[in-house]
Amino acid sequence: MRYASWILLLTVWVGCTPPNNKFHDERIREIYDLKDRRSTDTLLVLLGDISAQIRNEAAMALASVQDSLASNRLGTALLEDPDEAVRVNAAFALGQTGGYQAVNALLPALTTSPPHVNREVLEALGKSVSKSDLGILLSFEAKDTLLQEGLAWAFYRLTLRKMADSTVTARMAEYLLPAYSYQTRLAAAHYFSRTQQLQGKGYEENLIAAAKGDTRSEVRMAAINGFRSLAPERSVEILRWIFKASADPRIRISAVRVCQNYPLKDCFPLVYDGLVDSVELVAVAASEVIIQRMDASLYDNLRDAPIKTSFRTKANLLAAFLATSSDQMIWQKAEVQYQQSAGYEKAAIANAIGKSGKPFYRKAFELLSREAMNTKELPVVQTAVASALTQLNRNAHAEIPNREFASIYQQLITGGDLAAAGIAASALSDPALDFRKDISDVSFLEKARQRFTLPKDLEMLQPIEIALAYLAGKEKPTLIKNTYNHPIDWKLIGSIQQDQQMEIKTSRGTIVVVLYVEESPGAVSNFVALADQHYFDKRFVHRVVPNFVVQTGCNRGDGYGSEDYSIRSEFSRRRYTTGSLGMASAGKDTEGTQWFIAHSPTPHLDGGYTIFGEVVSGQEVADKLQVGDIIESITRVNK
Length: 639
Known about the structure:
This protein is α+β, with helices and mostly antiparallel strands. The chain has 31 helices and 8 strands.
């Protein structure tokens, strides 16, 4: 009897054990499968389901499908659904879909929706409204915090679409003030950060005040990026003060990076401070400014700079010197360093050689053409050499005949590394180089097609197709799209906790992340499956953009690697913030094994790149990672 009681108790306990995540519900799994298959018709049926949860999930699924045929039905849900969450998701889905049908569905909601819904409606209109309806946004009065945030993000979306004007600028300048919420100020700061040709006046004081004194680093760094609209005589001293006063290296990166918009002479002390900064990414950012704005008169000031950080900084300085100097010692140094280096450092020096100026055109061509078919090198070196050749081709177009480059490109396309072949093909389709005069027989491109397989080689095949059409005098072909080929592993999803954490051990320390399995089950199951198989072990960090992202997961180590499948994009209302995990892609539904961690908010990625997790500890490690660092392992954290 005692044993029977224990068995009964165990049975009750097991029966009451809560599921790991929401996908124990078969109907919710069905919705995510339908989203994965882009099945608009069935999702629209579920949008009228009796269950609010099912309607809510269906509306969010349509935000990833992005089918204009769903706009009218989403508009009905936005106006009439009794559940506010469904209405919010319907508004988001309409903004993701865009087009005049989406706008027509969104506009009536502005006068009939509660604030939480209207916040999403406003941003959705910013993504999709046409110029003829722009006045509706410009005249909207946002009287509470939610509506102010929605309107601010709507205006930010307008500037991404190059539709902002002086009225928008004035409103966003006001939204920089401390009285407004963090989200409103962040949107305003990023508006000034992303606007290419700012219209309007009177924003300068608010922009400067936000850059110097906002309580949030994320707002300050975005506001600093907006200084490119200010005259250097107004901004350079302020930027240098900000640089010296800021403990957050991301702010220092922003202060240095703005200098790419000014003559280097005007902000040389600030850039030099960045170049010798003890934080590697600050120095890298400064060296990238020097590449873009190098002044030959500053060569002596920079030649012996005490660089303490990574090879990237040194390689970038070398690139700047090769582009602007005629000193033969510089070439000799570049050649020796190339021969004596390996891996990512060698790739960086190859890229520097590709930026060589006129005194070194021929020597650079001879070195790079010799190395182009060197199959003994790592893929990252092979693609760097190919990229350097195309860069040199564009620089030396008037000095070195196209036919000499064409010979090397043809060898790469027919027998070289696949990614290098794609890079070479991209040069052949460049109208500025006009290879139509030099290449009449395109059979080598037609033959090269057979070397590529889909979906694995999609990114590398596209340039081949474009070059083939260009050289044949045809219209640019429609880009190949990945078809559904990798269903979600629901058995694996069942083993993943709602707040599943993963431990990422790197050569610089440990990062712990939490996965958003209930928002992005396709990306999460893919990531966990690869981690469980030790796929990520010993992978390189192949891309680091200062104060943007650190990226890894490439099986080649150069950003061109993938496997023989792709997964679907999964979009949600979640925003990219410091520590967000995102899936790298070459366009919608092309994700595979590569992923990244954001250094700071990157709102231009919101709704366009899958977010599948977030750093919970170790962000300082993520911020230190550099190109060439190693992911030692990724494992589940058991609870």
